[in-house]
Specification:
Blueprint: H1 5-14, E1 22-25, H2 31-43, E2 46-49, E3 55-58, H3 69-74, H4 82-89, E4 91-95, H5 108-116, E5 120-124, E6 127-131, E7 140-142, H6 148-159, E8 164-168, H7 174-185, E9 189-191, E10 197-201, E11 210-212, H8 217-229, E12 234-236, H9 245-253, E13 257-260, E14 265-268, E15 279-280, H10 292-299, E16 304-309, H11 320-325, E17 329-334, E18 337-342, E19 350-352, H12 356-368, E20 374-376, H13 388-394
Parallel strand pairs: 1-11, 7-8, 15-16, 19-20
Antiparallel strand pairs: 1-3, 2-3, 4-6, 5-6, 8-10, 9-10, 12-14, 13-14, 16-18, 17-18
Helix pairs in contact: 1-2, 1-7, 4-6, 5-6, 6-7, 10-12
Bound molecules: uridine-diphosphate-2(N-acetylglucosaminyl) butyric acid.
């Protein structure tokens, strides 16, 4: 598997915390990572390739007023840059961040957290200006909802704050834990990562870091479910099965035949069909919302009825409409809940991908469908999956890209 998008993007932001160069290895060649590096360059950092999948970043002087609004609106993770910039350079402008159309995606937890740490906030038509001329101060911050980027941003801001910061109801995702471990190697004093309370003792300075991007658990889950949907023998290598306990538990309950190695997962054909298993998404270690669309598709091929409940974002189930156009039988109960009736035969259609995860789901649906499908807006899949068509061709999928 390639390196995890949702770690790589935060590692890029973290390089701003040090004056010295930092190295990022196992960088995935995906669009969002390219946009994040572009943002960093426009802010004044020096970004250089340093070997295969390796980048060297030196963020000696960063001008926080130069956040490129157009780029920032392309990736949600741009908002994470604010933590390190505010902590080290004491002022930053945040254009309203963009990203997937999966819900409202507010940034109030970031703003409220910075204000609690002593920053002044000014709102302007395109975003916010934040400043902390005396530097940030440690404090206790409670997250009303678990937020992955919120936790990562405030952890980074707190590494250079005066005194101790405690983040309560913090995210526990493997990417958050790995980020904290990398920051500690740079000289930060972070403890409690992987639990819901993270404590950060501020230090004056951090040294350059080395960020080895961990395997992408969402990509892993995607390909494992593809193997099951097609009832095929497929080995997903270079992954961390331990990061996918919730998914693997549901898949086993559904009757999938899985062989789990230390760094690999193999799907094996079964006789008959998998069974329907209802699922609710949850913050880590629960079932990842990013795997929900693919799991929902899988349930269209299972025997029986399942309820899929995704309380995290309010727009993540609307893509099921497109699966219905292909022949699925999915009933939307409310924006957070659908009932899937399986199994359904799927038929090729022309469909449009609304976001990264729904996009890959429609692509997997097209692989199973009878006849030809056209995925419009397919470049959205490139935001999170590297050279998807080349990799699918290697395992026998007939797929071609047409530039629009
Ligand atoms: N929320 C607020 N206020 C905030 C921040 C978040 O109300 O200031 C709410 C959100 O609206 C949502 C909930 O908190 O209801 C959780 O959102 P979270 O902040 O955790 O999401 P995120 O950090 O913006 C990251 C991933 C997403 C992934 C979610 C949940 C990155 C760049 N993105 O988003 O990944 O779905 O965590 O695990 O890390 C993807 O890769 O396709 C993707 C969308």
């Amino acid at each position: 598997m390639r390196g995890a998008k949702n770690f790589a993007l935060k590692a890029i932001a973290a390089t701003i915390l040090a004056e010295e160069p930092s190295k990022i290895t196992n960088v995935p060649a995906i669009v969002d990572v390219g946009v994040m590096f572009d943002l960093l360059k426009k802010l004044g950092a020096d970004v250089q390739p340093a070997g295969e999948r390796t980048m060297l970043v030196t963020a000696k002087d960063i001008d926080g007023a130069k956040m490129d609004a157009a780029d920032a609106q392309k990736v949600r993770a741009s908002v994470v840059l604010t933590g390190p910039i505010l902590a080290r350079f004491r002022e930053v402008t945040i254009p309203h961040p963009g990203g997937d159309v999966i819900g409202k995606r507010p940034i109030n937890f970031f703003i409220d957290g910075f204000v609690k740490m002593g920053a002044k906030v000014e709102e302007y038509d395109q975003g916010y200006r934040l400043s902390a001329p005396q530097g940030l101060s440690g404090t206790s911050i409670f997250f009303p909802k678990v937020s992955v980027t919120g936790t990562e941003t405030l952890v980074m801001a707190a590494t250079l704050a005066r005194g101790t910061t405690t983040l309560v109801n913090a995210a526990m995702e493997p990417e958050v834990v790995h980020l904290c471990e990398c920051l500690n190697k740079m000289g930060a004093k972070i403890s409690g990562m992987g639990s819901s309370v993270i404590t950060i003792k501020g230090v004056e300075k951090l040294g350059g870091g080395t960020f080895d991007v961990i395997p992408d658990r969402i990509e892993t889950g995607t390909f494992v479910m593809m193997g099951i949907m097609n009832n095929s023998h497929l080995t997903v290598e270079n992954c961390q099965p331990a990061h996918l306990e919730a998914l693997l538990t549901s898949l086993r309950e559904a009757g999938a035949n899985l062989e789990i190695g230390t760094n690999s997962i193999t799907t094996k054909p079964i006789k008959g069909r998998i069974k329907s298993v209802s699922m609710q998404t949850h913050e880590y270690p629960g079932f990842a919302t990013d795997l929900q669309p693919i799991y929902t598709l899988l349930m269209t091929q299972a025997e029986g009825m399942s309820l899929i409940h995704d309380p995290i974002f309010e727009g993540r189930l609307f893509f099921t409409d497109m699966l219905n156009r292909m022949g699925a039988r999915i009933i939307m109960c409310d924006p957070h809940r659908v009932v899937v009736n399986g199994p359904s035969k799927l038929y090729g259609r022309s469909i449009e991908s609304p976001d990264i995860r729904a996009g890959i789901t429609l692509l997997l649906a097209a692989i199973m469908a009878e006849g030809k499908s056209i995925i419009q807006n397919a470049n959205i899949i490139d935001r999170g999956y590297e050279r998807i068509e080349e990799r699918l061709k290697k395992i026998g999928v007939e797929i071609a890209r047409k530039d629009s």
